[in-house]
Amino acid sequence: MMEMQHQESLGRWDGLSSRDASSRAEAMEFICQEVMRKVEAIEPKKAATPALGSSPNSDLNDILVHLLMLSRRCPFEDVRGRCTQLLRDIQDLGIRIPRPLGSGPSRFIPEKEILQVSKVDASTQAIFEDAFAALHRLDNISLVMSFHPQYLGSFLRTQHYLLQMDGPLPLHYRHYICIMAAARHQCSYLVNLHVNDFLQVGGNTKWLNGLNEAPQKLQQLGEINKILAHRPWLLTKEHIERLLKTEEHSWSLAELIHAVVLLTHYHSLSSFTFGCGIMPEINCDGGHTFRPPSVSQYCVCDIANGNGHANHHDDLLGNQEMCGEVEELMERMKQLQECRDDEEASQEEMATRFEREKTESMLVVTSEDEECVPSRDISRHFEDTSYGYQDFSRRGEQVPTFRAQDYSWEDHGFSLVNRLYPDVGQMLDEKFQMAYNLTYNTMATHKDVDTSMLRRAIWNYIHCMFGIRYDDYDYGEINQLLDRSFKIYIKTMVCSPEKTTKRMYESFWRQFQHSEKVPVNLLLMEARMQAELLYALRAITRYMT
Amino acid sequence: MEKMSRVTTALGSSSITGRTMFCHLDAPANAISVCRDAAQVVVAGRNIFKIYALEEEQFVEKLNLRVGRKPSLNFSCADVMWHQMEENLLATAATNGAVVTWNLGKPSRNKQDQLFTEHKRTVNKVCFHPTEAYMLLSGSQDGFMKCFDLRKKESVSTFSGQSESVRDVQFSMKDYFTFAASFENGNVQLWDIRRPDRYERMFTAHTGPVFCCDWHPDDRGWLATGGRDKMVKVWDMTTNRAKEIYCVQTIASVARVKWRPEKKFHLATCSMMVDHNIYVWDIRRPFIPFATFEEHKDVTTGIVWRHQHDPHYLLSGSKDSTLYQHMFKDATRPVDKANPEGLCFGLMGDLAFAVNESLVSSDAGRKPYPGGDRRYPFFSFKKPNPTEQFAHVSSALSVFETDLDSSRMDWFVKTAQLYLLSGKPFTELCDHNATVAQELKRPQVRRVRTKIIIRITGTANLNVSAFSFSMKEMGPESRLERCKGESRPDNVHLDLTSFPENEETEGSDGPTEYMFGDAELDDDDLYPMEHDNQTVPEEPVYTLPPEAFQLRHEIIDNPSAPEHLQQDKADSPHVSGNEAEVACLTPIESFSLISISQPLYSPHLHASFFCPIVREMLSHYAERGDVQMAVSVLIVLGERIRKEIDDLTQEHWYMSYIDLLQRFELWNVSNDVIKLSTCSAITCLNQTSTTLHINCSNCKRPMSNKGWICDRCRQCASACAVCHHVVKGLFVWCQGCSHGGHLEHIMNWLKNNSHCPAGCGHLCEYT
């Protein structure tokens, strides 16, 4: 309800995303007047009934919330200033103004570490402005990613192309598919974001009641959404066939590719969202409060994920012990690099190592204790809640290992995507490479470290969890480079991101900077996306041949 | 050395025999290679490593190199190469990064000879030196190339590409020391085998990975590369900078490229994804493959010419687990299926026409353009662009330019706009339309309209002869007869061409000249259009009609058809490729079938009697490309005629007419036609995509469908930025700032201002 209402007023906000300072000022002026008018209108009433939530009031509240968002997130200095000023003025009039809940865009990363919107270099500023102009918002994900402006640019470009530019699917379908994908992981943040967008492009409110209210066509997508999100290796050409067979609600190949790219993108983005503890947007539910600050901190998500304040305590202790962790890791990397040649594992040994890694990844137990009950709100977007990640090599079903050399993104996936959905292949390719090669050659306090080995280990470990094997990789390396807590984090984030907790985030690589942990998250996200995409594309290729 | 090998391997093509054949492999193949004497082929893949003998009728499995109970990953081959000098020597590139050599001369079952595990990543390619027995080169995913001396245990030199993965390495056929390497980032490097420190030359060949490269077997400087960007490029490496001399655009990423032996300009390609065929291209003719082999059911992974001096045998292995030998003579030749003619309309009505040159010349001789007095004002023969082709095909391109002044479709547009199709009594409609036609100087059309009145109203006081002479399909005898019977056979005499026999268009001095649909379709030639503006026959031309001609008489003195005798014959040109195309109905045998006989004169005819005649007439018009007439008459006559013409035909006419109208952007008229049509298939056109989504201009929310007020922000949604009133009608808005208003207001405003009237500061533009 909230989202719907604040959307109304959005029309007026558009002027603020203009690059032209004078038109921004003009739009701002207009908003000021509007707000003041509203404030004056409720003034007398307010004296009589101070209760919050009466209808003209909530309308105003939405505007105030939006102003609050702008005052924090708008990339334009002048707008931020004016909004802050305006809010202060309103407060002086005796109106209760909202304040943001939580601190900063991420729960895991202290706000001070993340780039302030106000202090960015020119290139990041340009990216922010682009994003703001396209969406009239700058979301928390972008802010967290802005540790790596180069990647952020590529990411936003791709996302913008997928959601806004020419493509086989109509706009509201796209957003609905995003909702479907994010809902699979109960990622309320992304769901909320796209519910807004969905309504804004004219989507039917009814669809939001659940998948069974959506058109048949989208309902049919539910199946592969489910499989892709949790057990992509089970996707077969029959699934594709079912979607494409000619009938009223069938999909075209191009549409399907578009949908698949969207699904995988949002599955992995959900991983990132949870993995970095992205906070709800200020102007969405749970991102702000009108309560005075004295009321104790309360955040639904925090409680659901067991992130009370209590956690901070043992982290401090842990930190002490874990000194030297980085050095140890670097030592091992060096060793691996050096003794590669003298100790040549037999082929069988290599194969077993892969199997072992695969099986071991099963043993990395994700915190099962808390049965995460998805809030009603989100669960209506997907069916079959019980369907979750299942370990690749568990139970009798023998799914053959996916050989990366037989179906790789570079050789096969790219061509297929680019053929059916032009330019997207290029963008994804760029994004994958960017994430894979993202390094500043630092490890915690150490400079000039070649991290390629570590990155490859992470990438292959994730693919290993999805049953993708690289012939030319010695899976023994993973065991040496990734410690248990890191593996737990990876596995949780990739397979059941909704269970990621702050404790997990903090317990791996304790000495590393947040700016180094974020690229790991990006790497995880892209690796997961590629893995899902490979399975989906392979199924489509098989269908086509 | 090189000379020697040439001599020993240069077998006459006669010594190789065989046919197109295939055999099933147990597993998908990744690569194949042949031995020097073209008698055996090795197939390698993840789960297969076998040698087959090529026999006359079939492949025979000779040897399985995959031995051992638990084959290791060393057997999982990404590439294989058979040494071209040493019959017993093979090398494979394994997906786990190993380079393995195999010696077939070994007595044991396991033929593995040497194992090099120096590469860290998958080895994509191995390549033996063409003449040197012990030199092997490998290129790997890890970005390194290594040169091995097979007499030593390890590589003799390592070349670092300083960039991403190596996809292909190829020794030059001519330069002893040179090899080329292609990379995943789109680069190609040339190396000197003696200098591992730095490449000799590097250039960017493709966007995205270069999957393969191949040196020309004869020409020293030519290197062909194929990439993920779906291109095959041929580079001339003899110059200082690598120069792209040929480029072939294929439909899928190029996985392998191999020059065809003994044919300087031919090369074979296969793709890695989506496309399963093998193409042989003539690089000088990059738009259509010279030959295609379509046998495989899954992507082709390896191609190799069976013998290095025989261009007729191609071997291929595929993911579909088959090994094929293709005979060149069995290949499909796409060029045979290609349409040798091309026809295209330009924006301004120009017409370009390309055709096999031989056809043009022979045509010209065979078919003299009829009528010496004809003018062909815009028949310009542009330079033929002969291209050298394998099948000795060359095309001529002709461009027919229209005279821009001759607004040739004006009549169509005007009549379309002016014809009244409904809303008045029937006779008035006819009258009106007749007048319109008259004004637009299309007398014949007018007459038809008039005639319809006569016929259908069928009033007794009509001069009966009006019927008879309105029949354009009269047999000659009856015509004469009637002429005699006429009190005043009018001096207007139309000598009309009709085309029951697909005849060449013969000239007529009549007012109407049509473009003949059959011209382009049957004869590969085109008569663009004919103008005959000034022929105004002053006196009746009484020609005895030859077979193909039929005369049509018009009696003008009919009281109910008050027309002028003055017949301005200047007729607007009729064009039309378009019309001819869209209106090509099944030709009706001949109009002369209807011979009207005496009973016609009976004054008590029922209107329905004429229906067949009208029907014929309409089909006649439609067939001649004037669907406008057919449809207009159809609509005006409505029920009276509808039953006579079968629905399909009607629908066809309607569709054609609507299509035409829409091409001329006569949306309103076309909508009228749709509305008035009685064809259910047509009326339902109006019911598709009838939703117009609008968003409120204030809150940007979609408007619900109730009136002009947005129910969310409770404001008038579409207020005019100039007068601030609600716009109910034509609303024009700027796509930049989304402000707008009444069409005229905005037009006026923007005449004097450049800024948006809403004051948003946007520089709107009205175009």
From TrEMBL, chain A:
GO biological process, alphabetically ordered? cellular response to L-leucine; cellular response to leucine starvation; determination of left/right symmetry; negative regulation of TORC1 signaling; positive regulation of macroautophagy; regulation of response to reactive oxygen species
As recorded in UniProt, coiled-coil segments are 319-346
Q: Which UniProt keywords apply?
A: Coiled coil, Cytoplasm, Oxidoreductase
Q: What is its main location?
A: cytoplasm
Reaction(s) catalysed by this chain's protein: a hydroperoxide + L-cysteinyl-[protein] = S-hydroxy-L-cysteinyl-[protein] + an alcohol
The UniProt entry's GO CC annotations, sorted and at most eight, read: cytoplasm; nucleus
As for subcellular location, the record says: Cytoplasm
**What family does this belong to?**
Belongs to the sestrin family.
Name of the protein described by the UniProt record? Sestrin 1
Organism of origin is Poecilia latipinna
Organism placement in taxonomy = Eukaryota, Metazoa, Chordata, Craniata, Vertebrata
UniProtKB/TrEMBL annotation, chain B:
Q: Which Gene3D superfamilies match?
A: YVTN repeat-like/Quinoprotein amine dehydrogenase (2.130.10.10)
Question: Residue ranges of region Disordered?
Answer: 481-512
Tell me, which GO biological process terms does this entry list?
autophagy; cellular response to amino acid starvation; positive regulation of macroautophagy; positive regulation of TORC1 signaling
Where does it live in the cell? Lysosome membrane
What is the uppermost EC class here?
Answer: transferase
User: Which family does the similarity line name?
Assistant: Belongs to the WD repeat WDR24 family.
The protein's name: GATOR2 complex protein WDR24
